Amino acid sequence: MYVEETGYYALSSDSSMDTFGDIYEDDFNPMNPFENLLSQDYRSCSYEDFKFIVYLHTGTKYILVVTTSSPNITGNFSILTSGSTNITLNPYTHVLTNCFIGQKCQFYKKSIGIILDDILRDEIRSNMTLSDQTILVKSNAVLTMIMFVGGLINSILSIITFQSKDLRQVGCGIYLLASSITSFLTISMLAVKFWFVVVTQMNLSIRVSVLRDGCVSIEPFLKLCFYVDAWLNACVAVERAILVLKGIKFNKQNSQRIARWIILILPFSCLAQTQCLAASFHKSTSTCELFANVSNLTENMLPDADITTMIVQDKTRIPQVFEPEATTIQTSTASLSTISACINMTTPAGRAPTIGWDFEGNINDRFLIYNGTDGNKSTYALGRTSCRKCLNLTSSLNQSVYINATPYIDLRNISFSVEAWIKPTIVTDGIEHVILAQCGSLYGYSCMRTSIGNLGSMSFLFRSDTQTGLHNVSINVWSHLAYVYNKTAGTMSLYLNGTLDTSGGSHGPYYGSPTFFQFGNIDMIGSIYYDGCIDDIFFYPFARTASEIAATFALG
Questions:
Q1: Of 106, 154, 231, 515, which has the fewest CB atoms closer than 10 Å, so is most exposed?
Q2: Ordered DSSP codes for 523-553
Q3: What is d(CA 59, CA 41) in angstroms, rounded to the nearest whole number?
Q4: What is the DSSP letter of 247?
Q5: Backbone phi, then psi, for 188, in 5-degree steps?
Q6: How far apart, in whole angstroms, are the C-alpha atoms of residue 538 and residue 355?
Q7: Count of CA atoms in the C-beta half-sphere (13 A) of 437
Q8: What is the pTM of this model?
Q9: Tens digit of pLDDT per residue, the chain (556 long)?
């Protein structure tokens, strides 16, 4: 998309397929849908197709990606635009020139069979510690370590046994010694592979080069050890059969010579069968397009994988995402104000949050994981726009909200950010008013809360560790508040309406044990209730940047 004049534009779709949309700036990476993401799908009050109100600049290329909520759905759709001038829409093609691993890929292919990524990827919870993982992941970790210890002991004893020259007078003994070594390597690589998969999928911030190198090295080497060990056992069986047939005519020297040659050649033969290959996907037609050098192999397609390991070779062309023959482009003269009144869910600019509470008549997390429970019959009022709602808390009624969903978020070892749109009715009454808190203890740096301080300015606390804002929060008007803790730098930064209010160092680390979140109060402390409306609360397991916060505030 290209615009002739910088300004606000409205884009929407009209179809029978319930379409969703995303806008990217400069480039679109189909394997990493969060890279260059400008704005995510805004759903209208009438639950029609997507609608965007977005600020576009001249001289900048924007990519509009339209998709559906379910795979294998085709049909016609229209793109409607509104603004000061027309928007030019052109088909988009993309050429990948780097080798990397993506997250959301509709189809993928490997020639090395089922791997640990396939088995575990849907069970591993991102940005959480091992103690907060599912029972399946924990039990697999225990079984893997039991297998590793047992296999290690067995392999060491076997190697010691076959060190005797008397047992290596024939090829069978040489095969078994080599098999003991490969068994040791196999069980060791299995443990390494398991923890590589778990750690890299728990921590999505690990560098792409590490993921790529792990795929092209650990998995093939693990398969190589397994195949070599299986062939060595087959060689033992073949030699024993030959010994039975030849009897006393069996030649021990030839047996030893053949065994040494087989052990030398076998790894190279097996290595040819363990290459990590891949294929591109065509999202609009739900087909898998194989790379030129693997076109004769059979695909293994897994639809809608949440986290997929994918290797993409250099200069591989991704098929067109935009289908001209199935698309009509229309221009609408609808006013910007008419369309903007229908937006009832906002998406923050920049990197996406992991938890978001919209308070559209409920206390559900928009990702349906960390849903809340009402502490004392909270109500909902008119939100920032005519079709929005907000959580209305009244301090005199002791109203608050609890987020008891598990696993609890562990704040001790991460940077994190909290953003909220609020419309308070009381701020300067000499009492602190809590917005969001996680407080399991009142000792030291163990009670985290984001709030309005007793003097009316923003306040970010780890119990006895406090950062206070410089400017008061206004009453009876909507304000955007952002609290950012950078663990590495040891800083707390407070942003009021998209602008840095204050920032301080020598903060943290946070020591509080994981527990539930609470909106509007901290029961352990007492009556520090919030009074007023809250329209959005977003939690990020990383430190947001000033530009991301400013852009989110600009979205309104």
A1: 154
A2: TTTB-----EEEEEEEEESSPPPHHHHHHHH
A3: 23
A4: G
A5: -70, -45
A6: 6
A7: 31
A8: 0.44
A9: 888 888 777 777 877 777 878 888 888 877 667 778 875 544 444 445 677 777 788 888 888 888 876 666 777 878 877 776 778 888 876 654 443 343 333 333 344 445 566 566 667 776 777 887 888 888 888 988 998 899 889 888 888 888 877 777 777 888 888 888 888 888 888 888 888 888 877 776 676 667 767 766 777 787 788 888 888 888 888 888 888 888 777 787 888 888 888 888 888 777 765 544 433 333 333 333 333 333 333 333 333 333 333 333 333 333 333 333 333 333 333 333 333 334 456 778 878 788 999 888 888 888 788 888 876 677 899 888 777 889 999 988 999 999 988 888 999 889 999 999 999 999 988 899 999 999 988 877 889 999 999 889 999 999 888 999 999 999 999 999 999 999 999 999 999 999 999 999 999 889 888 999 999 999 888 889 999 999 899 999 999 999 999 998 988 7
Residue 354 near residue 127 (C-beta atoms within 8 A): yes
Count of Cβ atoms closer than 10 Å to residue 4 Cβ? 12
Residues in the chain: 556
Q: Which of 427, 384, 415 is nearest to 510 (CA)?
A: 415
Identify the residue whose tokens are 């909106």: 519
SS3 187: helix
User: CB within 8 A of 226, min separation 6: which ones?
Assistant: 186
Block residue for tokens 């615009």: 3
Give residue 279's region: left, alpha or beta (phi > 0; psi -120 to 50): beta
CB-hemisphere CA count at 13 Å for 323? Answer: 15
Structure tokens given for 359: 């308070």
Q: Which of 25, 4, 16, 13 is nearest to 551 (CA)?
A: 25
- Count of C-beta atoms within a 10 Å radius of residue 113: 11
Please give the distance of CA 186 from its chain centroid, rounded to a whole number.
30
**Cα separation, 442 vs 71, whole angstroms:** 49
What distance in Å separates the CA atoms of residue 436 and residue 327, rounded to the nearest whole number? 45
| DSSP per-residue string spanning 454-491 | TTSEEEEEETTEEEEEEEEPPSSS-EEEEEEEETTTTE
**Closest alpha carbon to 411 in 463, 371, 368, 361:** 463
Pairwise CA distance, residues 528 & 531, whole Å: 10
Q: What are the structure tokens assigned to 258, written together?
A: 């053949």
The one-letter amino acid code at 44 reads: S
Q: What is the rounded CA–CA span in Å between residue 56 and residue 41?
A: 16
